[in-house]
Design goal:
The chain has 153 residues and is of the alpha+beta class. The chain contains 1 helix and 5 strands. Strands 1-2-3-4-5 form a 5-stranded antiparallel β-sheet. This is Type IV pilus assembly protein PilE.
């Protein structure tokens, strides 16, 4: 017969469990912000693609009408586009950007904008002009500063 001291302990001690929980917590604290940043960049990329699609719709409007004017809903010059979805991403039910025609400066130029909403709030405005100039107000201060004149960040 075996004595009590001969039994093998099975399982984990409280210290071992606390160490594992601490390590998992540290990993989560590092991974979660990186995940959130990746999600925002993906949504911003989808908005950039939607702006390019809206630019193509503006070009089709110009081809038919010989002007960019009247491309917004109700034949207006600014506002939600009439020939393209007014929110991005184009797929899915949750939308993170509003797409708008902000300035057909004359019959031959335009500026379109993707403004963040909901989960993207505070992520800065994306803008594209008919000349191909791209802006991103990354710090969301209402001014496109030096270094904010590109989308690739």
């Amino acid at each position: 017969m075996k004595g009590v001291g001969a039994l093998k302990n099975k399982g984990f001690t409280l210290i071992e469990l606390m160490i594992v929980v601490t390590i998992v917590g540290i990993l989560a604290a590092i991974a979660y912000p990186n995940y959130q940043d990746h999600v925002q960049k993906t949504r911003r990329s989808e908005a950039q693609g939607a702006l390019m699609g809206l630019a193509n719709a503006m070009e089709r409007h110009f081809t038919v009408n010989n002007t960019y004017e009247g491309a917004a809903t109700g034949g207006a010059d600014t506002g939600a586009p009439a020939t393209y979805p007014d929110e991005a991403p184009l797929d899915g039910s949750v939308k993170y950007y509003d797409l708008r025609i902000v300035a057909p400066t004359n019959a031959t130029t335009y500026t379109i904008r993707a403004t963040p909403k909901g989960g993207q709030a505070g992520n800065g405005v994306l803008q594209l002009s008919s000349t191909g100039v791209r802006w991103w107000d990354a710090d969301n201060d209402g001014v496109v500063d030096t270094g904010e004149n590109r989308w690739g960040k």
